[in-house]
Amino acid sequence: MNNGKELVKVEHLTKIFTSGLIGGFEIRAVDDVSFTINEGEIVSLVGESGSGKTTIGKLILRLIQPTSGRILFKGEDILQFDKKKLKTYYYKQVQAVFQDPFASFNPLHKVDRAFDLVFRSFLRDVSEDEKKELVEKALESVGLNPREVLGKYPHQFSGGQLQRILIARALLVRPSLLIADEAVSMLDASTRIDILNLLGEFRDKYGTSVLFVTHDLALGYYISDKTIIMYRGTIVEWGDTEKVFHNPLHPYTQMLLESVPDLNVKWEFKGIEPEREEGKVYEIRGCRYAPRCEKAMDKCFKLRPPMVEAEKNHWVACWLYYKR
Ligand SMILES: Nc1ncnc2c1ncn2[C@@H]1O[C@H](COP(=O)(O)OP(=O)(O)OP(=O)(O)O)[C@@H](O)[C@H]1O
């Protein structure tokens, strides 16, 4: 149900973390990143560990502040939201599900409380009967039996079951945007596919957009309309999933896809440089991938390549495609 309308517009977003007090160093976790998420669109954010995926999710959720750049939600800068707008943003517009479901539950309270909080904070006018029906439907939609869930404590569930409860809660308010950060990595293969299909259903029925953060190329391919490939805080390539996967342009994306013989097979990272080279790579002014790139030219080490639209809805940041 992608109607071509922009829901989220990320513009030149940069987040620099400073580590240590004296003699500390800076980490450019996200470095001049721009992309859009349309209404009713599932966008995968794919990249290896430490490439900045979670940081982007947190910035969109306003859990952390950007160093520079901005994020527009339905055309409005989220940093300028007043208290009222922020409340609506958190409950009605944006919901998030993270990798570790245990961290999202208070072990002293029954899991029902997770739903109560949503009703108390946002769906206040809903009658008790309606609440019950909504919760039951939400639980059933993620393959859980409400009678086996309600009234129980978090420790009585597996991680996968808790994750499904959190996804049910997130979808209960039918948010405009769901940020799913490695949200299905703890689930077994068949539940994982059920949840992915459920996200697709929500997109089709209610126009929910999803930012699907993953290090698993196959999951990204399965679920998303668009794919963003990240490398060390930068976007190297993004666009329609079919185009990115079937006509990869950036040497990094090509390397990734070559290392996945079959898209149904889980992607294992290959060739990550040793830790001690980390600082060196972060200082690079040009393309972050240049030190690993077989096609790198002199200027790749000196200048950051601009993002160019190489074909319709397919962008790449690589000097090989820059024509001017
Ligand atoms: N609060 C923080 N303080 C300092 N550095 C941070 C902080 N949060 C993230 N980083 C650093 O920023 C970089 C990007 O981290 P981020 O968690 O966004 O990556 P990721 O792609 O989500 O990785 P993963 O898949 O492992 O979660 C990493 O080098 C990380 O160590």
Automatic annotation (TrEMBL):
<keyword id="KW-0813">Transport</keyword>
<keyword id="KW-0067">ATP-binding</keyword>
<dbReference type="Pfam" id="PF08352">
    <property type="entry name" value="oligo_HPY"/>
</dbReference>
<dbReference type="InterPro" id="IPR013563">
    <property type="entry name" value="Oligopep_ABC_C"/>
</dbReference>
<feature type="domain" description="ABC transporter">
    <location>
        <begin position="8"/>
        <end position="257"/>
    </location>
</feature>
<dbReference type="InterPro" id="IPR003593">
    <property type="entry name" value="AAA+_ATPase"/>
</dbReference>
<keyword id="KW-0547">Nucleotide-binding</keyword>
<protein>
    <submittedName>
        <fullName>Mannoside ABC transport system, ATP-binding protein 2</fullName>
    </submittedName>
</protein>
<dbReference type="InterPro" id="IPR003439">
    <property type="entry name" value="ABC_transporter-like_ATP-bd"/>
</dbReference>
<dbReference type="GO" id="GO:0016887">
    <property type="term" value="F:ATP hydrolysis activity"/>
</dbReference>
<dbReference type="InterPro" id="IPR017871">
    <property type="entry name" value="ABC_transporter-like_CS"/>
</dbReference>
<dbReference type="InterPro" id="IPR027417">
    <property type="entry name" value="P-loop_NTPase"/>
</dbReference>
<dbReference type="GO" id="GO:0015833">
    <property type="term" value="P:peptide transport"/>
</dbReference>
<dbReference type="GO" id="GO:0005524">
    <property type="term" value="F:ATP binding"/>
</dbReference>
<dbReference type="Pfam" id="PF00005">
    <property type="entry name" value="ABC_tran"/>
</dbReference>
